[in-house]
Design a protein that fits this description.
- Strand 6 and strand 7 (about 115-125) form a beta hairpin.
- The protein has three domains: about 5-290, no CATH class; about 300-420, no CATH class; about 430-485, Arc Repressor Mutant, subunit A (Orthogonal Bundle).
- About 40% of the residues lie in helices and about 20% in strands.
- The chain has 15 helices and 16 strands.
- The protein is α+β, with helices and mostly antiparallel strands.
- The chain has a nine-stranded mixed β-sheet. A three-stranded antiparallel β-sheet has the order 5-4-15, with no helix packed on it. A two-stranded antiparallel ribbon has the order 3-16.
C-alpha cells in the first residue's frame, strides 16, 4: 500500500446504560423473552407519545465531557425516515442538528506512537428492533420480529476520517470502550449487541487531498472483526483500482467466517432520510447546572489511573496497563491492596506480587471460563489473604498455586484450605536440616558436580528437598542450609 493512503471513519453505536428505554418506561434487560419488554410507545401504536429519559441525556453529556467535546445546550430531536421491517413506525427518533456533543477527540497509541483521532459528534437516538431469520441451525422462510430492543437508547459516535490503518481503528475502539466502561454510560458488550460499529473505508493515491469513494461495512460484531474487515476492504479496493475499475459507493457486509466483504445495497445519502423536527418532543435548553453536575460525576479515567498506579504503587507500565484496562479489574486490585494495607503488608513486593497473580493465574482461569473478574470465584479479599500468607512465610509460592486451584474451584478462603490439606510451609530449621542431609546423601553425583563448579547442579538437590517435604519447605531456608553444607 506504499502508493495509497488508507482513510477510515467509524460510526460507533453504544447502548446507553439505563434501566428504562429512551422514550418509554419499558425495561432494557437483555435476554428477556421476545416482545416482553414492550409497550404502546416502543411498538409504535397510533397516538402513542414518546417521553424523554433524563438519564439517557446525562449519559451522552457525561461521555462527551470525558472526550473533550463541546456540549450543545439546545436539545432537540428529528425524525429520520426510512423503511425497515424492524422499525414499525418507519422512522427513527434521532438528533440531526445540533447533536448533544460536537467536536471531541481521543488520543490512541499505536506502535508506540500517539495519534489524535478527531470525533465529529455524539448524538442520542433510539435503537431498532431485531429480525430473526433462523432458529438454531435452521434457516426460516420467514422472519421473526422481536421489539425488546426497539427504543432502547443509543449514543452514536462519528469520527472524522482521521484513521489510516486497521490497527488505528482497533486502538480507537479499544480506548473508547475502556473510557465508556469507566464512565458506566454503556456496558459496551459486543456479544450482546450493546456496542456496534459501521466502518467507512476508502483509499486514495498518496499525497492526494481529495477523498476516495467510500464504502460502508456493516455487521461488525467484534473489534478484531473491524480490524480484519478494514484490512480486507483496502486490498479489495486496491485491486479494483489497479485493474482499471471504479469503486462504487455502497454498503457491504462483513462475512467473518469467509474473511471477506459482500455487497449488500447502494448507500443512501442524507437526503434520502428526509429529516424533519420531531413534533412530539419539544426542544429545550440544558441548564448550566445540569452540565456541571454531570461533570462532577466523571470518575478517574484509565490513562490517569494508569499513571497513578505506576507513580504510587511502583508497578511496571505493562502491569499498570493491564490492571487499568478495565475498571472492574482496577477496582479488584485496589480493593485487595487495601486489605493488605490493613494487615501492614503493603509494600512494593506485595503490590507487584498481587498484580502478577491477577494478570496471570486469575486472568487465565477467567478467560478459560469466559467470565469477568466480577464473577470470579476468587474474591479480592481471598486473593489478598493468599498474598499475605506468601508475604509472611506461612506458605511458599509453589504451595500457593495448589491452594489457588482449590480457592477457584470451591470459592474458599486460603486459610481453611491450608488447615484442611495441612499445607503450612515448613520453616523450622532443624526439620529442614534433616531433610537437606537426606537429600545430599541421595544426590552424590549432583554434589560432586556442584563442588566441581557446576552451580546449576544445586537445583537437582533443591528439587529433591522440596519433593521430600511435599513442597512445604521454605525455599530461602533450604537454599541457605544447602549452600552452608556443600561449601564446607
Amino acid at each position: 500500500m506504499d502508493d495509497y493512503e488508507v482513510v477510515v471513519g467509524l460510526e460507533v453505536h453504544m447502548q446507553i446504560n439505563t434501566k428504562a428505554k429512551v422514550f418509554c418506561e419499558c425495561s432494557t434487560q437483555f435476554g428477556a423473552a421476545p416482545n416482553m419488554n414492550t409497550c404502546v410507545i416502543c411498538t409504535s401504536q397510533p397516538g402513542a407519545i414518546p417521553i424523554l429519559n433524563k438519564r439517557a441525556v446525562e449519559a451522552i453529556v457525561k461521555t462527551g465531557l470525558a472526550l473533550n467535546f463541546t456540549i450543545n445546550k439546545q436539545c432537540m430531536f428529528s425524525r429520520k425516515q426510512y423503511f425497515y421491517p424492524d422499525v414499525p413506525k418507519n422512522y427513527q427518533i434521532t438528533q440531526a442538528e445540533p447533536p448533544l456533543c460536537s467536536k471531541g477527540k481521543l488520543t490512541v497509541i499505536v506502535d508506540g506512537k500517539e495519534k489524535v483521532i478527531n470525533i465529529t459528534r455524539i448524538h442520542l437516538e433510539e435503537d431498532a428492533g431485531k429480525l430473526i431469520h433462523e432458529v438454531g441451525n435452521r434457516k426460516l422462510d420467514y422472519s421473526l420480529l422481536d421489539l425488546n430492543r426497539a427504543s432502547v437508547g443509543l449514543m452514536e459516535l462519528v469520527t472524522e476520517p482521521d484513521i489510516n490503518s486497521p490497527e488505528e481503528a482497533l486502538g480507537f475502539l479499544t480506548e473508547l470502550k475502556s473510557i465508556v466502561e469507566y464512565l458506566d454510560t454503556s456496558k459496551c458488550s459486543m456479544e450482546e449487541g450493546k456496542m456496534r460499529c459501521d466502518v467507512n473505508v476508502s483509499i486514495r493515491p498518496r499525497g492526494q487531498r481529495e477523498l476516495g469513494t467510500r464504502v460502508e461495512i456493516k455487521n461488525m460484531n467484534s473489534m478484531a472483526g473491524v480490524r480484519d474487515a478494514i484490512a480486507y476492504e483496502v486490498k479489495r479496493q486496491k485491486a479494483v483500482v489497479e485493474s482499471g475499475g471504479d469503486i462504487v459507493q455502497e454498503t457491504r457486509l462483513w462475512q467473518a467466517q469467509e474473511g471477506i466483504t459482500k455487497s449488500m445495497r447502494s448507500k443512501e445519502s442524507a437526503m434520502d432520510y428526509r429529516y424533519f423536527p420531531e413534533p412530539d418532543l419539544v426542544p429545550f435548553d440544558l441548564p448550566d447546572a445540569f452540565i456541571e453536575n454531570v461533570r462532577k460525576q466523571i470518575p478517574e479515567l484509565p490513562k490517569i489511573r494508569k499513571a497513578r498506579f505506576i507513580r504510587d504503587y511502583g508497578l511496571s507500565e505493562y502491569d499498570a496497563d493491564y490492571l487499568t484496562s478495565m475498571k472492574m479489574i482496577a477496582d479488584y486490585y485496589e480493593k485487595a491492596l487495601n486489605i493488605l494495607k490493613d494487615k501492614s503488608a503493603d509494600n512494593l513486593s506485595t503490590r507487584k506480587l498481587l498484580a502478577n497473580w491477577i494478570s496471570t493465574e486469575l486472568s487465565a482461569r477467567l478467560n478459560t471460563a469466559k467470565i469477568s473478574i466480577m464473577e470470579s470465584p476468587v474474591t479480592s479479599q481471598n486473593l489478598a489473604e493468599l498474598i499475605f500468607l506468601i508475604f509472611n512465610g506461612t506458605i511458599s509460592g509453589k504451595i500457593a498455586k495448589t491452594i489457588f486451584e482449590e480457592m477457584y474451584e470451591k470459592s474458599a478462603n486460603p486459610e481453611s484450605i491450608i488447615k484442611e490439606k495441612g499445607l503450612t510451609q515448613i520453616s523450622d530449621e532443624l526439620v529442614i536440616i534433616k531433610i537437606c542431609e537426606e537429600a545430599i546423601a541421595e544426590s552424590q553425583k549432583a554434589v560432586l558436580e556442584f563442588k566441581s563448579g557446576k552451580e546449576r547442579a544445586l537445583g537437582a538437590i533443591i528439587g529433591l528437598v522440596m519433593k521430600k517435604s511435599k513442597g512445604q519447605a521454605n525455599p530461602q531456608i533450604v537454599n541457605k542450609i544447602l549452600l552452608e553444607k556443600l561449601k564446607k
